[in-house]
Amino acid sequence: MNLSRRSLLISTAAAPWAYAASAAPPAPFGACPSPRQLAWHKREFYAFLHFTVNTFTNKEWGYGDEDPSVFNPTEFDADAIVEPLRDAGMKGVILTCKHHDGFCLWPTATTDHSVRSSRWRNGKGDVVRDISQAARRHGLDFGVYLSPWDRNNSAYGTPAYVPLYRRQLTELLTNYGPIFEVWHDGANGGDGYYGGARERRTIDKTAYYGWPTTWNLVRRLQPGAVIFSDVGPDIRWVGNEKGIAGNPCWATYDPVGEHGGPAAPGDVRAADSPTGTRHGSHWLPAECDVSIRPGWFWHEAENGRVKTPQALRKLYFESVGRGASFLLNVPPDRRGRLADPDIASLRQFGKDVRAMFAHNLAERGRIEATNVRARSARFAPEHLLSLAAGYWATDDGVSQAGVTLTLPRPERVGLIRLREEIAYGQRIDSFSVEAETNGAWSEIARAESLGACRLFLLDKPVEAARFRLRILHAAAGPALREFSLYPPPGVA
Ligand code: FUL
Q1: Of 190, 293, 343, 457, which has the highest C-beta tally within 10 A?
Q2: Which atom of ligand 1 approaches the CA of 60 most closely?
């Protein structure tokens, strides 16, 4: 849509005022995203690859005593792994470079417990290199999972391990190009092999790893990377491994430790994580991690238990549709490829999502707002109708506002997408969408958090020519970038 032409059209025909040329943007409200977080919000859907010795030993958590020679994928092909991810619409891929068993998928200088000691490619292979390069070839960003818990390393639990962990991270962050996300899981401490000690080692989760120092290292080596853990500092765990965000799901969050003390990776009151904290002091949006299979690693016995495209679609609505991201694990098998049922499900899901958002019915509409910031074209409601940059904003102090959209003719609508202009914070507390049928307005959707993205799949599609968005309450004058309407999925 050509906005200047539209605005002109509306200002001479329908709009109650002629928009003024310019005005200052709204002041940011509360905690706001950093540029790296804003870039992350655009990815929405990306892959996890759980792949290591467990793939060959049929385990979920290796003990750390696995013989490295068990790692021997017979037909490893990074392109064959990444292509189906790209075709499904994924924007990135995060690889388990080291899981809890301590086996490193790259030839690290920090330990012999790595691909270098495996039979695969006579010890000359590097899974991290191959996947990172294939990701770039296919337009996906690359991220790394490096388990802090290491059940193989004799130093784990002593002060000597932490610098070693940082050296591993340094290798990953310097030798494999740009990294979009660094993933630290929260499972740490317990029994393991530990260089032959075969004992239980517990650590102080808040102090042992010296997280602030490690995170500074990430900032220095990869300033564009977001850091994920139970508590951020950039992206938070959603509090479950089912792929489901809370409703509401606020991007702001003040994490608290499991027993009310300071929070740390592995020590968080997970009941708060799905919803976050309204007016929390950090911008810490949720990431929903879930596997396409029951387990995180590939197991032959689970080949018949791959999530269907319908199940994936439901998860998409429960994660991306609530302003979080959808991190879907698709584990390579013993060949070093994705299994056929996983590829088939991904492919169909990708098609479904593309079809769902193919025709934005709102684009052909006329839109009016109850308030336009400084009556400026820069903040005109027409911005809501196009996916191009630009947003609708109101004057300061406006806590209730709305837009009314008139389509050229009645349309059947089954899906709605809304986006706040989150660069200025999460300003909206509650909102509803209404449709006009038989001369009366009725509510078709309502929620509290809006944020980066909000999707509504209507139980009952509605046929109408007029729709309105009502901001029921906003803590600061609302700023939104999208109000899209789509036909019911499955209907052309
Ligand atoms: C957890 C791990 O314990 C699981 O094995 C898996 O990697 C999951 C994504 O994170 O913390």
Answers
A1: 293
A2: 5
